[in-house]
Amino acid sequence: MNGAHDNTTPRPLTMNELWASWDEPSEDESKLVNEGSAEEISEAMGKVSVGAGAGDGSSLTYPTPRSSYTLTPPLILLGARIARNTKLTIYKDIINFYSQDPAQKRYAELWKDLHSTEVQAYPIGIRVERANQGKEAANKKYKEGNWFGAMYTYALAWGCLLPYHLDAFAGDDPVREEIGKLESALFSNIAAMTLSASDAPNLSEDKKPGILNLGRRAVWATMQMDEFLTVGIVSKSCSRGIKLLDKLSKYPDTGLTLTPAEVGYFTEQEEKLKGVDAKRMWRDFGARRSAAASETGLSEEGNQK
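The structure corresponding to this sequence follows.
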């Protein structure tokens, strides 16, 4: 079946569908991913029969609006939306932290600009090119000792990709691989900037817990993109995660949940990868971030405070 009512055939997402993919998940949806079964999620989302055929994908259909190029079970779609929201929240927090404006005017301006007709017309190739240029500009700022400007510029570079996201492309699309590697590098570098910030004499003590937790979230945002990570990025991310959690533990009154399993996971991965070629892909070792979520017991709520 072809046409507007075909809900089983892959096709590129429309611009409206791309933006809808970034809608914030509800508290109940986040709870489902953290605590619910695949059947409960499927039933709650109303996208697939949980009876015969659900397991082999024969009854899968695209939801309205779509959020992925590939026909995907509701459990994975919802998990991907939560992962996207983690990235978007980090982006928003960096913009607000840099502008130091409680009214969040700068973020509102950027969000409006991203929705403009002119910007939305940019093809994905131009967006990737600009994001890479932004990454290089941020690298230069960091080398000059400007962690504050570098972190902000990494965030702006990532924003060049919006509203496109990894699930908007076919699994074998080279653009998907390119974006995945670019995104993981950007969030890995953001985490590195937060460590530099935590030691900066010009950062007030009351702002350090927030910036440290921003780094913690950036580490997990990086680890979520497991299929695109090199061993080098994973090793650095785990090392940063351990350091960030150690620094955060010195602020017990923040209300943040720090679990031994979280530190244990980072430590285990770091040990496993010692002596391994940093350029090799992490996926070659069967190490997946999905396992990390259950091991650490991190909830989306606790991961975003």
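The chain has one domain: 79-296.
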